[in-house]
Amino acid sequence: MRRVMDAFGGAEGILAGRKRVLVKPNLVMPKKPEAAATTHPAVVAAVCRAFVKAGAEVYIIDSNIAPHSVPVLNVMYKSSGMDKAAAESGAQLCFDVATRKTERAENRTLTSFPCLAPVLDTELLVTVGKAKTHGLAYFTGTVKNLFGVLPGMEKPNIHRKFPAAADFMSAIVDICETVKPGFAVLDGVVGMEGDGPTAGTPKAFGVILGGANPHAVDLAACHLMSLRPERVPALAEAAARGLVPRSADKLTWLGDETARLITVFRPPKTERVGGFFLRHLIPKRLNRRLRAVMAKYPVISPRCGGCGECARICPQKTITMDGKKAVVDEKNCIKCYCCHEFCSMRAIDFRGR
Fold first, then answer.
1. How many domains does the chain have?
2. 273, part of any domain
3. Does the pTM of the predicted model rise above 0.90?
4. Together in a domain, 212 and 309
5. Is the bond preceding 302 in cis, omega lying within 30 degrees of 0?
6. Domain end marker among 217, 238, 261
7. Is the pLDDT of residue 332 over 80?
């Protein structure tokens, strides 16, 4: 981590005189570090330690899809190891649950949204994402990580408002451009492949990435993970806006030789279909409609234990409980895969039409 930061002037250079730092890891749900679903506490501690040593006041914060409250934060910090990361690095855990509405008129999709107040009040926001494949986003890194600056129960509203993957990820880019992280770090020591972001398989990767541009960090990660950047709606949108090149060979690479770091990550089962035909031969609007139709449905497997968590978090409220079995209303399902993401039993599978 020190080598990554030294390439950008060290913690002092990144701070550039700023003293209040907010570190935002990926704490998608209460998971132990070895599950590889959350940013590893050792990486978070290393980031925090560098800024604390440089004289900054450092806080760790996140908000998952549960109500944004002190009890939920307590569970989240403890289960993910963030409590130890804070103690070991000299950082503090943020328990400020205040939120405020923020606006940015130049955003393309999401011009206003409620945001965690500490994010808006900090001098330097550092996004510390996790290298993972993702059922809806195809890849999640430092930019998608910023969905967590919205208070917990607001997230289903964004899914419901923007059901198409391209529109939803355009909103994610808007969130990133609104809160403007000053530095981005990606924990790829052990990533996740397959049906991420929570039900995939841990994958040894051995990489830590960092940079001032979170879109560039994510593009570099996709290259090293053998994932096609054009399949990542957030990167496609960022490239269309001129925020990042379309190809990783246009980036300025620092650090180790990249050729020996390339690893093949298995994509999620929900990987977008259609290939060349959808990308190049039909109009963009029809393209989105066809992709929505062809996307796979979530299916409740016999592993379902009847906890009802999927019904609670479903943005469209298309999942109901029939006794102790969850049931999906496919007609109204928007295929956001939140149910799959937050099922602790891994009881959600996928099928096509």
1. 2
2. no
3. yes
4. no
5. no
6. 261
7. yes
